[in-house]
Specification:
Disulfide bonds join 32-35. This is Thioredoxin. Residues 1-105 form the Thioredoxin domain. The protein is of the alpha/beta class and 105 residues long. The chain has one domain (5-103): Glutaredoxin (3-Layer(aba) Sandwich). Helix content is 35%, strand content 28%. Strand 2, helix 2 (33-48) and strand 3 form a beta-alpha-beta unit. The chain starts with a strand and ends with a helix.
Amino acid sequence: MTVVKIIEKDADFEPYIQQNQFVLAVFSAIWCSPCRALDPIVEKIAQDYKGRVSVCKIEVDVCPATTKKYGIRSVPTSIIFENGKKSATIDGLASREEIIECLGI
């Protein structure tokens, strides 16, 4: 059972980050091998920190406006939002420990 929210259109992203205190947003693509390698790491974080951190995944090919707005130039890129504001960016395939450290939890 997945607890990662899939953002299916650009209009859904901003309300999602505004409604949740801590958000880990992962920009990825189906065709990206490192993105697929990051999926189980992100899923485990979502499970372990459910209720404390909201996790979403944005397919760059499905949400081009959001991808452009946040300056995503490569995938995977993870952005951490705190109270709707960007607080950290992680470029590339990151370890669970690196992501947890950036979340500050």
